[in-house]
Amino acid sequence: MENKNKVALVTGSSRGIGREAAIRLAKEGYDVAIHYARSKKGAEETARQVEEHGSKAFIVKANVSKKEKIDEMFATLEEEFGRLDVFVNNAASGVLRPAMELEENHWDWTMNINAKALLFCAQRAVPLMEKNGGGRMVSLTSIGSIRVLDHYSAVGVSKAALESLTRYLAVELAEKNIRVNAVSGGIVDTDALAHFPNRDELLEDSRAKTPAGRLVERSDLADAVLFLLSDRASMIRGQTIVVDGGISLCI
């Protein structure tokens, strides 16, 4: 139990990939701070599953598009645990419209949740990580950052910004023994995909074109996240690991 008494924060962990990552971290011995924005019931279910593995679960609500709410979240986290060893930046949102139909508030909302939040969460996470000699950060992104997907312009640009910030943070924080990376997923059938107007088409197309022969699952992304958080990835810095069964090589 080398991770006993260590603390992980997973944003957007009331469902989907975030929940999967939180549960996997609990299995590894981490106590887990479970963040949510809307679904308290979902966060409570994640907490229940975290506690089944003998880890402490702590639920915190915050709108991570707003810096003051990020500050409040980390102040609460510091009061509860006094430390942070792992930060999984998973919370995401965005407006799904063609670029010519985007309005200013659509753009700002998407960029703030998906890119700005990483910067200001990192600024608050670093002092807590330094208390115990370092830490690890992993963000979730998507192949829409490097490939053009229908209705995905705002989200794709925000994810590209997140991946760029990952590189800058990795270099700047290396001297503090803080590793920063990202995991990029292919099409995953989660609740978030239900908001895509072309969901069924995306799923059918991905099943047919993925060289690995199946869709990417939540567990595949959680595997990559846990690998990047492990000591086996100690020399991987500022990278975006693509977990898509090979489909981005074919489109």
UniProtKB/TrEMBL annotation:
GO BP: any one term: bile acid metabolic process
Source organism, top-level taxon: Bacteria
InterPro entries for this protein: NAD(P)-bd_dom_sf, SDR_fam
Pfam families assigned: adh_short_C2 (PF13561)
Leader sequence segment: none
EC number(s) recorded for this UniProt protein: 1.3.1.104
UniProt keywords, alphabetically: Oxidoreductase
Gene Ontology MF, one: enoyl-[acyl-carrier-protein] reductase (NADPH) activity
Enzyme class: oxidoreductase
NCBIfam families: PRK07231.1 (NF005559), PRK08063.1 (NF005975)
Subunit-level organization: Homotetramer.
Family, per entry: Belongs to the short-chain dehydrogenases/reductases (SDR) family.
Name of this chain's protein: Enoyl-[acyl-carrier-protein] reductase FabL
Native organism: Salicibibacter halophilus
Gene: fabL
